[in-house]
Specification:
single chain; alpha+beta; five-stranded antiparallel β-sheet; four-stranded antiparallel β-sheet
């Protein structure tokens, strides 16, 4: 795995400015931090998957460009989708804090993507040379976790529903709220949505079909329309 310092280009500074972790930092401050932290760099083509072992799975992952899925895999090979992170998602440029030292983490690129992995010690262990930069980034890190924990709480709310039908309704309700519309696109394929809701894909498709026939929702691939808002109150 390469070091980011060897691959950083001028275009990357403008991209990093848009990420929550680096918000408010100047180009020189970003470069100084990268020199000290020596983050790892991953370049992925669309469809490519990289598996992070325990040496890297606990690191802070920043999506510099592109669109990725983050999943964890347990010792028995069971895969669980954790989060979809898109470059344009304000809270999605940073995925961190949850400790996956005892699990393998997969990063799957849905578009050509660039990701950097930052050792948390570079933020949490005080270094006089970059103490001011660390302070700014820690404030950004705390701010970013508000979005992460909101995402996790919504997912837990979906998972605690008793039926697949109710899980789908809760998930689509949250997507509608985020889009401020009853028409919206979801960021997940059917397989990824089944993993996210921890249900069988065939059962998911069957429940979606029932909701469509009952005119509760309509959909075409990833585009959904809520037809009966009474179910989503």
């Amino acid at each position: 795995m390469k070091r980011y310092l060897e691959n950083i280009k001028a275009k990357h500074f403008s991209q990093l400015h848009d990420k929550i972790l680096f918000s408010g930092l100047s180009d020189s401050e970003i470069y100084t931090f990268i020199q000290c932290a020596k983050p790892y760099y991953i370049s992925l083509e669309a469809g490519q998957i990289v598996t992070l072992d325990k040496s890297y799975s606990y690191m802070i992952s920043v999506v510099v460009s592109g669109d990725v899925l983050i999943s964890s895999t347990d010792i028995e090979g069971n895969k669980t989708l954790i989060k979809s992170i898109t470059e344009g998602e304000s809270s999605g440029s940073l995925y961190s804090i949850l400790d996956y030292r005892n699990a393998l983490v997969e990063i799957e690129a849905r578009d050509d993507s660039e990701v950097i992995l930052i050792d948390p010690d570079s933020l949490f262990v005080t270094d006089e040379k970059i103490a001011v930069i660390q302070q700014k980034m820690l404030v950004n890190l705390i701010h970013s976790q508000r979005g992460l924990f909101d995402h996790l709480s919504k997912r837990m709310y979906c998972l605690t529903q008793r039926s697949i039908r109710d899980k789908i309704i809760k998930y689509l309700g949250f997507c509608s709220e985020q889009a401020h519309s009853n028409r919206f696109d979801i960021p997940l394929s059917r397989e990824d949505l089944a993993g996210y809701l921890a249900v069988d894909r065939a059962s998911l498709s069957r429940s979606l079909g029932e909701l469509k026939r009952e005119k509760v929702i309509d959909f075409n691939k990833n585009h959904f329309i809520i037809l009966d808002e009474n179910y989503f109150k």
